[in-house]
């Protein structure tokens, strides 16, 4: 075969190879463009879901504030907070899909399914870890009464008392540093919420065991006799055994305590310690609001702390102290009340 015949064959082979490379390049660019378009749609969908979740959970907080405001106004005539009031009833999971704004291009079938549930907890129904330290004569000292109460609670739950001693010392140092405004090396910061009490030396295991019966609030607070758990009552009442504490919890279901004196009249076995307003009360100021939102397969929970104060005869001041949003892991049962603890 002559050289003149081989040249056109080599040219055709080069042209075929060039065409294949061009097709591969076009396919690659097309795939990249499709991926970019898909990613943009995914980002837009996620952002829209985030915005929808924000205003729905904000609505849940407004729902809680409305209920607490009405309850606070009613407290002017009936000064007691108890578990038979509307704020203590959980908000059952409700479908909100029909209220979500949908794009014009979306059909009714593609509208995002949304379900909201919520619950309000009285944090003064738990022992306040902040009470362990108080100010006396301008100095921060450990409160013996509250230290004994937490010691009894630690003993009930089988927790190491050495942790309590460590928490007291760290809290004492942190409170003193905050008062003087001169933080020292190695002194922890004061927590802002219960999830941060590990700063004071409390282990995760102990914090989880204490959570249903103890809390952290920004100031010293009395224990609400109408909402406290039996464990908290047993720990806080020096002369009450667990049987008496459980009897208190059962009896207040039918008739809540209107005052500390009312409890003393109904349960003479309780010592006069309940008459000390510094440690016990029948009203509360601090409430924790849980709102849980289910969007398709996504679960979002927002927790807020609200302080309620009387602003006048017919007005109530409600101040959100902090808000924390987190992903939920266990979906609430559809069509039933969702507990958010």
From TrEMBL:
Gene3D superfamilies: GSPII I/J protein-like, Photosystem II 12 kDa extrinsic protein. Pfam families: T2SSK. It comes from the Bacteria. It is found in: Cell inner membrane. Its main location: membrane. Residues 223-271 form the T2SS protein K second SAM-like domain. InterPro entries: GspK, RuvA_2-like, T2SSK_SAM-like_2nd. SUPFAM superfamilies: RuvA domain 2-like (SSF47781). Keywords: Cell inner membrane, Cell membrane, Membrane, Transport. Belongs to the GSP K family. This is Type II secretion system protein K.
């Amino acid at each position: 075969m002559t050289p003149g015949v081989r040249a056109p064959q080599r040219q055709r082979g080069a042209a075929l190879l060039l065409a294949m490379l061009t097709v591969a390049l076009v396919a690659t660019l097309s795939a990249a463009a499709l991926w970019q378009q898909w990613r943009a749609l995914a980002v837009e969908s996620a952002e829209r879901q985030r915005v929808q979740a924000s205003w729905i959970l904000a609505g849940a907080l407004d729902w809680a504030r409305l209920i607490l405001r009405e309850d606070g106004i009613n407290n002017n005539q009936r000064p007691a907070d108890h578990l038979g009031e509307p704020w203590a009833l959980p908000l059952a999971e409700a479908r909100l899909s029909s209220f979500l704004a949908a794009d014009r291009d979306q059909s009714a079938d593609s509208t995002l399914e949304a379900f909201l549930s919520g619950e309000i907890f009285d944090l003064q129904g738990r022992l306040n870890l902040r009470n362990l330290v108080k100010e006396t004569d301008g100095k921060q000292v450990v409160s013996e009464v509250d230290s004994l109460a937490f010691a009894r609670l630690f003993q009930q739950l089988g927790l190491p008392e050495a942790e309590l001693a460590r928490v007291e010392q760290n809290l004492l140092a942190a409170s003193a540093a905050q008062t003087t405004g001169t933080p020292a090396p190695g002194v922890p910061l004061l927590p802002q919420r219960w999830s941060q009490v590990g700063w004071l030396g409390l282990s995760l295991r102990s914090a989880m065991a204490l959570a249903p019966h103890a809390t952290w609030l920004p100031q010293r607070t009395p224990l609400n006799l109408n909402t406290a758990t039996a464990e908290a009552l047993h720990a806080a009442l020096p002369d009450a055994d667990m049987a008496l504490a459980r009897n208190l919890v059962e009896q207040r279901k039918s008739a809540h305590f209107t005052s500390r004196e009312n409890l003393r009249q109904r349960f003479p076995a309780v010592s006069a310690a309940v008459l000390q307003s510094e440690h016990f009360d029948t009203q509360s100021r601090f409430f924790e609001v849980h709102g849980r939102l289910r969007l398709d397969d996504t679960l979002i929970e927002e927790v807020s702390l609200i302080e309620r104060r009387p602003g006048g005869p017919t007005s109530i001041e409600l101040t959100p102290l902090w808000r924390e949003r987190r992903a939920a892991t266990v979906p609430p049962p559809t069509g039933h009340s969702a507990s958010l603890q």
